[in-house]
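Hi U.,

Before I forget, here's the chain from the pilot set. I'm dumping it here mostly so it's searchable later in email.
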Amino acid sequence: MPFNYKPLWKMLIDRDMSKEDLRVALRFSPTTIAKMGRDQNVSLDVIDKICSHFSCEVSDVLEWYPHRPLDS
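Structure:
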């Protein structure tokens, strides 16, 4: 997947929050946090709740990086 959640994890560290704190505060399932920890897809509703909670932009939560070309 060409997205990762490194900006979110950094934000949590800066705010002295754990992933579990985030999960409880936003009532996410453990599966949702686990998916994010593996840089897997989550719904836009999840991203919206995070951005609303922290009053931030999507780019403060996730980053995009281009696909690497496949070896021929």
